[in-house]
Structure formats: C-alpha cells, structure tokens
Request: fold
Amino acid sequence: MRQKALVAMSGGVDSAVTAALMAQEYDCVGATMRLHDYGACGSADDARDAAAVAAALGMPHTVLDFSADFSREVIDRFVSAYERGDTPNPCIECNRHLKFTRLYEEARRMGCDVIATGHYARITYDKGTGLYSLRRARCMAKDQTYVLYFLSQEQLAHTRFPLGEMDSKQTVRQRAEAYGFDNAHKRDSQDICFIPDGRYADFIRRRTGREYPVGDFVDTEGRVLGQHRGIIGYTIGQRKGLGLSLPAPLYVCRKEMTSNRVVLAPEEALYTNELTARCFHWIAGEPPAAPRRVTAKTRYAAKEAPATVTPLPDGGARVTFDAPQRAITVGQAVVLYDGDVVVGGGTISYTQ
Reply:
C-alpha cells in the first residue's frame, strides 16, 4: 500500500515538478497555502496554477487559509524585529511556523504520512546512528538549507525534498515542459513576498500606523553628519539611500534605538570576527560536547567561512571566525555546516 503525501503547491514550477515526482511513489494531495493579500505567494492566480497542475496529475487539490497564522507568526514578528533594531529573515519564520508546523498539522489531519515541498535541499538517514541529516542541494546555486536549519529529527523523518537531487533550475524547467505544465517558465518569486515593491519601511509604517521620528546620523565619535528619515529604514552595511553628501563613503555600522541615532563608519568598521546566536538548534538533537570546527553562513547569499562554534549554557552558541566577516547583522540567522551537512543554526543576537 502506497503512503500518502501532502504536497505544498505554490503555483510555481518548483512545486509543480515536486508534485509530479511525488506522484510516482505516493498518493498525493496538493495544498496551496493562502498567506496574505499583498501580492505573490498564495494569490488567486497561484492557486489556479497549482490546481491546474494537480488536475493534470490526477490528484486532489485544496487551498489552506493560513493568513491569520502568517500575519501573527511572520508579519508581526518581522515588524517587531525592525522596531527592536534587528534585520529579520521572514522566509525562515514562514518555513518554521507555516510550512513545517501548520502544514504538518494539516497533513496529520488528512492522514498523510509525509509532506513534500519544492525546496532545494536533501535529507539522508544513517542507520548506524538512527539520525537524519539535512544536506545541501546537489545544485549549490539553488541550495536553500540556510532557511531550513531549524528542522527537527521528527520533521526530517516526515519530509521529502525531491528537487534536492536536481542539478540545475534549467533541469527542473525541462521536466516541467516534459510534463506539459503551463507554468514551466513562470518567473521565480523574489525578495520578501508580502512586500513586492521592496519598500519595507513604508510597509511597516502602514502596518503599525506609526510614524518613526527623524534622528541623527553620527560618526563613531558622535559627531552629527545629518538627519535620517526614521531608524527602521536602515540596515547594517547600507551605504546607498542615506541621503547624505559625504567626502568619503560611509556605511551603517550600528543603530542606537534608545537615542534614535544611526552610526556611520568607513567600511573596515563593518568587519567583526565573533557573534553570539540565541535559540540555537542542533540538527543532531544535542550540542557538541566541546568547541567544533565548522563553516558558517551569516546571510542567505553569503559565502561560508571557516569558524569554531562553542555551545553556551543558555542554549545559544558563540561562533568565532578565522577571519573577520563583513556586516554580520543582528536578527539574521547564522547557519553552520560540516561539508554539505547542516550542523544547526540560530538567530544572531550580538556581534563583536
């Protein structure tokens, strides 16, 4: 008897090919998550595209209204993080709370054994240790393990990532063409799905109904360089869009929320070699007994860098890099690797 799978279907080509591959081995139900009304991700057009693929594959399809969960767990957290001075990654929170919590709950309710998503990542199982590993995708250019570091052993055991073995996005599109899917060349989603124009500070103002007061740009000695237009509109490492005429390039190196000041400095001030992360998740279940050599990534698009991780008694971790890293940012995730295996990750809370 074949197992039953709940396949997350966004309406895009990745989830379409995921559904087709899963249908070869499982009895599948397609599910499109309705998340918000701001643009991409769960729009009516996306749901129609997903339903068309499901119909072509002969599988039932449903739309799950997760908009209240998305508002609470993703958008509200995003806004609160910016108001604290952090720079969050909402894709991680969406995956954590929606795709791998609410979708799991729906899968169990429907009697499904596993869920499948179109993420580019791989899962392997070691019979000797009885542990699952999260591994980088075969196609490194598309690897998405950075936004999946929080997965538990239980979640890994009941998740399938069929695209993890694909060698390129072009191969996925070719598969979609071969299946006759109309969305074979549908454009990939970009940036933050609920802020399609990228103007996140304006979004936060509309969301909260608050105006964030102007304040001072200062240098590292406290000298006033000009005025900013609201502290939520800036992030660490930013140079463009400051609205200042300066004799030399300066970058945002710190935000002082209590004094409403944005500190600017030369680029070399952006480099630090140590960070602390909170709520650290170890995929094997337990932290290492001693400091461990790893490579670490501090942004989705960043390159990994050699480092040493030390578990902390409060459940966090300290990551010390061999060489200083540029613009490590509080609120982003740090994700650790051992070769192509994800060791774990957490949210950056402090840098030095």
